[in-house]
Amino acid sequence: MKTASRVLNDDPRVAPATRELVASAMRRLDYRPDPAARSLRAGRDRSVGVVVDSIGDVFFAALVASVETVLSEAGYHVLIASSHRDPVRERAIVQDFLQRRCAGVIVTPSRPDSLAGLRTGDVPVVFADRVGDLPGSTSVVVEDLALARQATEHLIAHGHRRIALLGDIPVVATTQARHAGYRQAMVDAGIGVDERLVRTDCPDASEVLRVIEDLFALDEPPTALISANTRLSLGVVPALHLVGRTDTALLAFGDFAMAETLAPAVTVIDHDPQRVGRAAAEALLDRLRPRAASPAEDAASPAEEGTTPLEAADVVLVPAGLIARGSGELPPRPTPAVRTNRTTAPTATTATT
Amino acid sequence: MKTASRVLNDDPRVAPATRELVASAMRRLDYRPDPAARSLRAGRDRSVGVVVDSIGDVFFAALVASVETVLSEAGYHVLIASSHRDPVRERAIVQDFLQRRCAGVIVTPSRPDSLAGLRTGDVPVVFADRVGDLPGSTSVVVEDLALARQATEHLIAHGHRRIALLGDIPVVATTQARHAGYRQAMVDAGIGVDERLVRTDCPDASEVLRVIEDLFALDEPPTALISANTRLSLGVVPALHLVGRTDTALLAFGDFAMAETLAPAVTVIDHDPQRVGRAAAEALLDRLRPRAASPAEDAASPAEEGTTPLEAADVVLVPAGLIARGSGELPPRPTPAVRTNRTTAPTATTATT
DNA sequence: CTGAAAGCGCTTACAG
DNA sequence: CTGAAAGCGCTTACAG
After folding, report:
1. Whole-angstrom Cα distance, residue B48 to residue B32?
2. B61 chain-A contacts, CB cut-off 8 A
3. CATH number of the domain that residue B217 is part of
């Protein structure tokens, strides 16, 4: 009997007695519906596609892990792929997910417009960690700008004026926002921005050592560093140890293993990938069961008028804060040997904007 | 025309001219075959299921990343799931993968027999990092026993006799093998094993601190520690710093971020998850294209006689070595206050086996 | 070497 | 509330 299908899909139009009969038979036979057949006919698969920069990166691995936890509890399969921060590859992967009839997609966009113009149909897309640009999508992020501002102000409050920023490549949305926050704080403090201290050109941790050496070779080297993401921090810390400049203040975006155990312990913005992942997965689930809303809420929604109603909130903010551990509270070390005579008071040194 | 299907599946029985005609039409229309339909009819999907302890664990994340790299190059999709070291869950996930018609499965088995008796049909299963028990499967591992032996001998060579072993739970195959290697080295050196120093009961890094405290509370505390996996190392190192016992020698299985930067830097067995992942993926690919073998090799294979020929090598070994960085070369610190008089020469202290 | 038919296992309308 | 038919988009034998 084909009523079986109705039981399987929780169709309400089936007598409770019949339902129980069918359900028990299914249990006895250990019957499991064929996902391919179901997907083929229904045009939708109970799977969610997830694209991140790289599944091997500790930050994204943790993010994906919590996405998986939430989604697998909800009965979804998780398809994972790495974009390696290539927008073309990212787009191809998402297209493939759509073709595979994924119920939804979660992406850490390699650039804000990486999926621009993509026809997603009614498949919800959630951008994780970075704001993405696609009509109807939701982005789950931390307050990058405000947190970068806070980080910078923290260092300024500890007496620093020569603060360097190390970031990914500027096309990455988070790098942009963190850069802007840094800028605001520096300008507002009347210090201004020395462009030589802004190094948002470190796609890989492997390049960090060279950049650090560059910075310390400046005639007025930085006394403090902000590392804009975990991957870079994993390069910055060893580099500082290597060049023997652990007296440099350091503030890292993203907590990481051993941050507390190092000497000095690393002050971080606890930008938590697990929280971001969970929030992204939950945002997606919300969009995946539109009928699950209570009747009351349904009634409250505006009448359809041809246009899809604008999502009230297409940006979800995940909380994050600063954890002071030592490296971010180091005082500026006296300007190096070159200038032993302190003629100018540190507070008077104002760079041009 | 249904010749299209033949072109798609590289069927040789199609005229080259026709093939090119069809192929160009496909290109022009940007045609992509429907995976669900294909899977439904062909009974096989171009995807590989991967089950690891946890995708959030740095070790397994790196392993999965390299599996993904290899398999996606070969045109396979990767389905990833975390078993959370629950054999029941692990088995259910694999069954689900099989039902989804995965072309192959890669598993880090939570215990050797976790998939025992599972009917996999002709779907190849590769066990990664730990030896698994399933007819016809391949296991890709490092030489756990020999490496554990080497690690232990390294510490013994640096004068240690009180060497503690911290491992996962004993059902995990790697823990068993490493335990055995440790045992061999201790016995062969004439030191013998003090069971109080063998702590293969640390499923989580969170429990490590308590175990470390236990060990140091012994009347004859260890002067050296072996951490049997990366996850534990991430707990052991902070714990040693916390209790102020960084003078304890440490040898960790598995390299990890900051190991080189910590003070002291951590001596490790460079059990590389990327190598294991790559080898596992390649072993799977080998089994996925049996006809890709050269005709010569085909001819050389014994005639089929009803029984599946035994795999020549169902265990693939991945190389690994010891990287001395400091922590593993620390000398035993003089026995604590309790016994200041060195009446017995260290080489003469032999514990019971 | 190429085509026409049947069917993989479900779900979706359409009748009863 | 339940059943019989058609079809999702491919591939697999089977004829020509």
Report:
1. 20
2. 55-58, 61
3. 3.40.50.2300
